[in-house]
Queue: 2 jobs
Job 1
Amino acid sequence: ETGVTQSPTHLIKTRGQQVTLRCSSQSGHNTVSWYQQALGQGPQFIFQYYREEENGRGNFPPRFSGLQFPNYSSELNVNALELDDSALYLCASSRTTSGGYQETQYFGPGTRLLVL
Amino acid sequence: AQKVTQAQTEISVVEKEDVTLDCVYETRDTTYYLFWYKQPPSGELVFLIRRNSFDEQNEISGRYSWNFQKSTSSFNFTITASQVVDSAVYFCALSENSGNTPLVFGKGTRLSVIA
């Protein structure tokens, strides 16, 4: 196991609702990245947090937002849910060195979101 | 633009057979990293290997081996003497800028090992 935890494991929402997903990073890691994995596809990068700030964002609309806390854990918030938001949401933690070098990302078990 | 192609969508083998999963990548960067992850039915992505673009040596870890060839932009993964526990979806991924850009994944190859 990687030590990266995510909650909840499963979630069912209806269109238009809002959802918050949580991730606790592995000990010693200071960077959290979020990915969305649709059925039968590879994970797609949503955004990354480092030092409590967004440090890169993929092609996702602003209704996808996040936070990183001082203990390096993170939240992913999605507003105005759409049917296409149904997916597995994966959190990955890694260590970014003082020189700005990012080490390997280790993934959590994911949260399966179903939007009806 | 960076891209990873895993042309094999699904592969089925009988236990103890060897199997190779193909990965072809595209990048204009000269300093990049390549990865393989395993995704069992539970959903968690399990890290298998990270290889930088300057290291073309093949690597072996137990029954797993990886063949990196820059000339063909390929980073193939071979499982020797496959076991039922190897059944999973395997993803190849690329990160540019010395590994400091987000992972770009292929669509994955579903491997089924039949007893």
Note: The longest strand of chain B covers residues 88-95.
Job 2
Amino acid sequence: DAGITQSPRHKVTETGTPVTLRCHQTENHRYMYWYRQDPGHGLRLIHYSYGVKDTDKGEVSDGYSVSRSKTEDFLLTLESATSSQTSVYFCAISESSLGLANEQYFGPGTRLTVT
Amino acid sequence: AQSVTQLDSHVSVSEGTPVLLRCNYSSSYSPSLFWYVQHPNKGLQLLLKYTSAATLVKGINGFEAEFKKSETSFHLTKPSAHMSDAAEYFCVVRQGGTSYGKLTFGQGTILTVHP
């Protein structure tokens, strides 16, 4: 398994509170991604990073921000959590996007419940 | 634009019988295609990938998939199902020409294997 850990693995929080999820990799891969998984939607990209301090939005970025101060860590922050952000969040890493064959490797996921 | 359609949301088979999970895609450029598997409460694991080297791709655990450009399909098959194959399967397309390896996920097919 790729060396990807996510913390926390489970979290319950109240509406309006800030939440930060952490993704940590030991593979030294350049690209990191945050996805959310909801029934009937597969996985949808929230934000991604192509290097330290280099990030960009995905298809469902509203209400989320990210930061990457080190190669190995990619943080996802919900500034003010809402019930619609209840989901399972997956981090993924990729060695490079230059080659078409470069697949992404996924972490174990974080189950977030906003009450 | 790219998209993926998994034609069956649920597939049920008996142990020892063949498995067929269907996937159609659309892509403006030559795509890379992947199948991932997700066991309950787990992250996503790569089963196999198509990279234009060969149209018939063999993956882990006896799975294989055939890329058919004329039909824009990438169906996943296995000759004989095992109980441990019960999981959710995602067909994924990665479009060439993107700078960050954007993946588009199908909505998933839940495979049930009966004894």
Note: The radius of gyration of chain A is 13 Å.
